[in-house]
Amino acid sequence: MKKIKQSFVLMIAFCLAISGLLTAPQVQAAASDYVSVTKNVNPKSMTTLDEAEVTLDITGTPPVNVTVPNDVVLIIDKSGSMLPSYNNGEDKMTNAKEAAKGFVDLMDLSVHQVAVVDYSSSNVIGSLPFTTDKDTAKNYISGITANGGTATGDAISAATALLANHRPEAQPVIVLMTDGDASEPSNNPYGYALQKANEAKEAGIIFYTIALLKNSDNPDSSGPNILLKDMATTASHHHFVLGSTGLSEIYAAIVDEIGQASAYDVTVNDIVAPNFEIVPGSYDNNIPKPTVNGNTLTWHFNELKNSTLSFKYKIRPVSKTTAGTFPVSISSSVITYKDYAGAARSKAIPNLNVTVKLPAPEVTSVVEPVGSPVGGETVTINGNYFVSGATVFFGSTAAKNVVFVDEHQLTATAPKGAQGIVNVIVRNPDAQTASGQYQYKADPIVTSLTPNNGPLAGGTTVAVQGSYFMRGITVTVDGVPATVSAYTNDTYFKFVTPAGVDAGAVDVVLTNPDQTTVTVADGFTYNAPPKTDPEITTVSPNTSSVAGGVIVLVDGKNFKSGMKVVIGGVEAATTYVSNVRFKATVPAASAPGQVDVSILDADGNLYTLTNGFTYTAIVYPTPTVTSITPSSGLIAGGDIALIDGTNFVKDVSKVFIGGKEVTATFVNNTRLKVTIPAGDALGKVDVRVANDTYEVVVADGYEYVEPVIVNPTITSISPNSGLLTGGIVTLIDGTGYKSGATVTIDGISASTTYVSSTRLKVTVPAGNSIGLKDITVTNPDGGTVTQVGGYEYKIVTPTITSLSPNTANKAGGDIILVDGTNFDSGTTVTINGVNSTVAFVNNTRVKVTVPVSPITGDVPLVLTISSGQSVSTTFNYNSGPVYPAPTIKLISASSGSAAGGNIIYVDGTNFRNKPEVYFGTVKCTSVTYVSSTRVKFTVPAGVSGPVQVKVVNPDGQESNTVTYTYN
Predict the structure, then answer these.
(1) What is the CATH code of the structural domain delimited by 535-616?
(2) Cys staple from 311: which of 56, 582, 609, 687, with CB 3.0 to 4.6 Å?
(3) pLDDT digits (tens, 9 = 90+) for 234-287
(4) Strand pairing of 606-616 and 543-545?
(5) What's the pLDDT tens digit per position in 23-42?
(6) Which CATH number does 887-966 carry?
(7) DSSP letter at 85?
(8) Kind plus residue range of the DSSP H or E element containing 655
């Protein structure tokens, strides 16, 4: 019933529109009669690839008070499907007959005639000839009974036969009502029914159709409904109801139209302009369906009522490369028809223009989508609908060397750009655009870090200069995140250093948001905390004579008991007063002038005040000489002589014999011991003793005489053996030794001291090889003696006297001191067979870095010198301090891709340097110790599902576990 009312309302709306009560904004053609035509196109602008729908609305307005006689044949379906048993108790047949009789009652039979054809199977077709007697017609209809099949085509033939002799002045009309599919003939019932309907329409018969559908039918897909629409003269000549209720309204509407028409024998010729072509099949839903020949659509129908017929079809541009504004149709598009009086008329179909533009370009890919900010890379842009002359922009900057390859490809040279992602915009000559993306990408470059050092506590603001810095750049210093305090531009920003772990140079890593990065190796130095070294500020008094002996106060800071004052390189007698003062006795100096004053600590380190003390010259007394013993000797010199007198000064008095300065040993202020130099000739020479500028000369005080050579003898050598390193003192006893005698051992000169004519004291030199070696004594006068095999060199064997300390942590890294004898610069040390790092201090001490040990307890320590000789002792490994186990309180991400690779943190307590992190049994390969409360690591690859994460300290202590889920 709802569908009936909708159809009825639509028909009323059409009538109102025709009457001018409803209006719509359309392009109107000029009208001088009862037919008007409008044309719409949607859209009015399209691309060469699009389609537009053309709507041709033809509206009829019947003349007032003009009724054309109609001879009407009612075709009534009486097939078995009209019975209640086929329709859930609904009596369609009774309803249909009552509605048909109502149709007859409404007809003006003084003008019109009515006939009836009732049908089921082809052999059960009845008819009532034309009559103007309503009762006769209604009585015939009342006698119709339902049974049999549905021979719709044969019923139409019967109706056409009745209309063959219609009144000449009357319009022939068929009104067909059926509820079911055409079922006869069995081979093609639909085609046969449609053929007979078309034959009737071609004969000039107006064809109305009414479909009685089931309540459950969909009118848009119902076979009977589609068939009956195709049969109708026009779409407005077709009606349907769901069920049979409402037929009376349909018939009443048709009666209102009987004899009222705007035009007859209507032909519509719409010719599409040559710039377009008709889209095949786009017109198939028109009623009637047009015939199409090339670009011409032709509709023909017998009658136009007081309604609007809408014909739709689609067009598309013929050329895919031509743009412009073009007419939809040509000017010869026309409607021809006859008016109610039979006069031939025509009406031009209005035209519209459609703007056709090229399709907007499309970018599907940018090949080589990443390049340097300096530009210059050749980029290939793939896509669709590119046009020769297209331009390319990277952001707002035009690209150079744009080459149109074809409609699917362009190449261009990337211009200079800022680091980051920009749109690559292709602009066709018609200003249509498309875009892709291009990334300017380059690792940041650092040219300076200012300052490049600061306190270990952090907080230093560092200015970074360089290039390719992006807003959002991050910085780590020694792996610890720093705070970026100010970003100025891509060449300058500032960051604040975090607290450091150890003093020294560390790496600075800059990472842009696009993950470009640079590492400045040793880019920042954490300064060690201020030292507490001792420092001298004043020395008072700060001057005295070179004789020394005065008491001075040395003031400063960080002094400790046990430290010594050193003046001019000589350790002074020192008294500790306080941590800011020492009292010292100034030692004597060899010459006047400024000297350094230093503090010497227990480790042998000196802390110096440069030129902190000044020695002044002293006035020396004039010396006297009373005797020279002996007063003569060989011309070769070398004899020892004693000079006695007065006013001799230690380290001042100098002696000259024959004008030659000799080595003078100060015995006391009345005696000097000298070694006589070689003379230039036999005879007497002067002896001069000088105290600075004060001197005494003894004329002819010494005489050079002829030598009497007597070879010395060797009676004993004690000791007569020693280590190959030499250095021991031995006494050579014998006879005939002279002052200046020399000694060689295995041909190597030995440091020799003349003691007396019967004894020489010799410092044994280092030997070339072990074994018995000859000792030769040679006097200055050439007298000599050799003791064959007189001295034996023995192999050097090291000894260990102490280890300090003698125990260390098995984790390694502790420093111990090994003291002993006979060490050399090639000394090596192993502890439990493992090589240690050794620093040679001197021949009695080496400094050793203890290696890692898998065990605790006593192990052997072996020291080997460069000769291969070794010595061993026992060293102890302990477990070291016991640290608390680590704990995990928070993990920065609890899930991630099974591919791994993301960087996350765990926060907690008691983390130790160089920890290990495990995901289940998988050990992370990239772990960074940030602090005792944070560890950073890279997630390893895994499999979907949860896994337990833990931290293990270097001492084996394990944390609790937290859950991480692989997606």
Answers:
(1) 2.60.40.10
(2) 56
(3) 888 888 888 767 777 878 777 777 777 778 889 999 999 999 999 999 998 888
(4) parallel
(5) 233 333 334 578 889 999 99
(6) 2.60.40.10
(7) G
(8) strand 653-657
